[in-house]
Amino acid sequence: MHLRSHAPARIDFGGAWTDVDLYARDFGGVVFNATINQYVTGEQIVTDEGMQVRYGFSLPTGSGLGTSAALNVCWFGLIGGGSDRRKVAEQAYGLEELLGILGGRQDQYAAAFGGFNLMRFAGGSQVEVEPVALPPETITALEARSVLVYTGTPRLSGNIHESVWGGYRAGRTETVAAFHGLREVGLALPEALKNGNVTEFAALLGRNWTCQKNLDPSVSNPQIEQLFATAQSAGALGGKACGAGGGGCLYFVTEEGQQAAVVDALVTAGARHIPFAFEFDGLRVAAD
């Protein structure tokens, strides 16, 4: 028997961090994200001699695009068939929790469900996934103005999580306010796209990035700030670090017609461009 699976990476547009139980149980978390055609692939080969499981992905390690969660979704998809996407997402999260990884659930649910989704978190497995239907022309316009690059430095989300949640537990005013701001942006972003307003969407990305940086100084660094300055000088209207920040990938939305100029400027500055399109399949499992 030969099974194949794939699960997509995601770009978290806004609200990330609020999906972690520590905040979600207190106030309710909100995340708006979308999956892209960069996949973790898996295969399971069963013969008379035993079973082999293999995985692969082309994205750099520590990209901040949810690849570790996508890998686990791939694995549980191979084991259980992937028909119950919510179950697979919870199994993938449970494995990370068992390993002592402090994180939220958006990555697992994104990889399992695919597409543009507004997700609401109330703590534990209380997760609502609301698919956001967008006109094809809006998706095309967003893709034509999107730029995704890898900084060349993997993000160390565990270290950043410790700093951020330490501030939250201590009731640090700026940290708590930043969480509330992230939640508000997570709610506003899909509305901008439903209205076909990519420019407003870009501005909200910038607002999300400000809130991210207010969580803790470790979320940004001089290299990231320089890449933001480079992108903005070339025509980026707004952007953010993907995932926890501190490294990994950066996502920008540009002025109309400036995508190529922003890509060229960032590559010249040392970043690696990651071309992509949005995808809507999520987890897929098939038998050969």
Automatic annotation (TrEMBL):
Residues 191-267 form the GHMP kinase C-terminal domain. Its EC number is 2.7.1.168. Gene3D superfamilies: 3.30.230.120. Residues 49-115 form the GHMP kinase N-terminal domain. GO terms for molecular function: ATP binding; fucokinase activity. It is an enzyme of class 2 (transferase). One of its GO terms (biological process) is GDP-L-fucose salvage. It comes from the Bacteria. Keywords: ATP-binding, Kinase, Nucleotide-binding, Transferase. InterPro entries: GHMP_Kinase-Related (IPR052203), GHMP_kinase_C_dom (IPR013750), GHMP_kinase_C_sf (IPR036554), GHMP_kinase_N_dom (IPR006204), Ribosomal_Su5_D2-typ_SF (IPR020568). Belongs to the GHMP kinase family. PANTHER family: L-FUCOSE KINASE. This is D-glycero-alpha-D-manno-heptose-7-phosphate kinase. The lineage of its organism: Bacteria, Bacillati, Armatimonadota, Armatimonadia, Armatimonadales.
